[in-house]
Design a protein that fits this description.
The chain is an alpha/beta fold. It folds into 2 domains: 25-154 and 231-299, Vaccinia Virus protein VP39 (Rossmann fold, 3-Layer(aba) Sandwich), CATH 3.40.50; 158-216, no CATH class. The chain is built from 14 helices and 7 strands. Helix 3 (76-88) links the parallel strand 2 (67-72) and strand 3 (94-97). It binds S-adenosylmethionine.
Length: 356
């Protein structure tokens, strides 16, 4: 185990399943933007970088015997959990190691149809992001898909100072990390209680601090107390991933395609004016104050002389049947008037947060 690069290794992460990072939802999200999805009914390869406890990988391996699932995580305890989950499910198609991103670059691996990383990109620093990009450049098949999630701006901008204050307290403290984290949260609470200043100007920071006090140490350690913590604008993340030959394809959450439902009419109309697909994503993040993005990128079948994907024709999302009425009502009704078969308004299509 090497090259942690300031990432927390003292405490294991929490267990979680991220439903959008799976062979079912990925083709749906791509198809909603008119991008040819991979065919997961045939044999395929899937790799998850920094898979944590491996719940996604082990479950997907068990459910998709036609796939071969690979992954790395620098914490050996995480790798053990992933292996034992797969063994309990009788899934022999899971191959995971405790490699760092640096050593995984040299691992003997097949070309991948999908490379996925959830909750990794913003937490590992520029050097490790560079290694991830190089891994994708080497291992992703032409036409392959990358799922990546990250803390986004502008949604995180108000709370960057809160994380800075808590991390600065831990940096001058000593002892078990879980106890340091408890002291850091208490100290931030005392700074807030002193009144005025940042917490008076940013009331939501106090709400956030209150929320953190109920969270387990494993979550807090990995979310807030790594050396690096780099929320990015969409264009910054897309720019770094372009070095692996990736082009933005689609938001990974199907609900993020339903702009007519997520935005009131005047904001939706403004967004529709923006023709450039990359600027459009940025404008959407400003209109929704997006704090966290889940995106799908694809690797072009051909590269130009600079190793970059050729400029693609700009895709307009195909209109959903229920978005074709000229002025969708706001707030949206629970039954769609434009398309009798449409289930919009019922779960899960209502899971759209404009402010989070
Ligand atoms: C915030 S956790 C997310 C875990 C998992 N993807 C999830 O969403 O549940 C980030 C993961 O990246 C792993 N990680 C961080 N730096 C790494 C590195 N340099 N090489 C390999 N894994 C790393 C950590 O051990 C941790 O499990």
């Amino acid at each position: 185990m090497t090259d942690a690069g300031g990432y927390v290794t003292e405490i294991a992460y929490t267990h979680g399943f991220h439903a959008q990072m799976a062979p079912g939802p990925v083709p749906l999200a791509l198809a909603l933007r008119g991008v040819e999805p991979p065919d997961f009914s045939r044999p395929f390869t899937w790799c998850e970088l920094g898979f944590g406890q491996g719940v996604n990988l082990a479950l997907l391996a068990a459910c998709h015997p036609q796939g071969r699932f690979y992954g790395n995580d620098i914490l050996p305890a995480h790798v053990e959990t992933a292996r034992s989950l797969a063994a309990a499910a009788g899934a022999a198609n899971l191959h995971v190691t405790a490699d760092s991103f640096a050593s995984y670059l040299e691992a003997p691996l097949p070309p991948m149809d999908v490379i996925a990383l959830h909750g990794v990109w913003s937490w590992v620093g520029a050097e490790n992001r560079g290694l991830v990009v190089e891994f994708i450049r080497r291992r992703l098949k032409p036409g392959g898909v990358v799922y990546v999630s990250y803390n986004a701006l502008p949604g995180w901008s108000h709370h960057l100072p809160l994380r800075h204050l808590m991390k600065a307290h831990v940096d001058q403290d000593a002892g078990p990390l879980a106890e340091q984290i408890g002291r850091a949260l208490d100290f931030a609470g005392r700074v807030a209680a002193a009144g005025g200043g940042y917490f008076a100007a940013t009331p939501t920071a106090l709400d956030r601090l209150g929320d953190l006090k109920g969270r387990p140490a494993g979550y807090l350690a990995h979310e807030y107390f790594n050396r690096h913590w780099d929320p990015q604008h969409f264009s910054e993340a897309a720019g770094e991933l372009a070095r692996a030959g990736l082009a933005f394809a689609a938001p990974a959450l199907p609900s993020d395609h339903l702009d007519h439902r997520a935005l009131p009419p005047e904001r939706h109309a403004l967004l529709r004016e923006v023709g450039d697909p990359l600027l459009r994503e940025t404008v959407r993040d400003f209109l929704t104050n997006q704090p966290f993005r889940r995106d799908l990128f694809t690797k072009a079948e051909e590269m130009n002389a600079s190793g970059l994907p050729p400029v693609r024709a700009q895709r307009q999302a195909p209109p959903l049947p229920c978005s074709t009425s000229p002025s969708p009502p706001w707030p949206p009704p629970t039954a769609c008037p434009a398309w009798p078969g449409c289930r919009r308004g019922s779960s899960p299509w209502t899971v759209i947060s404009a402010s989070a």
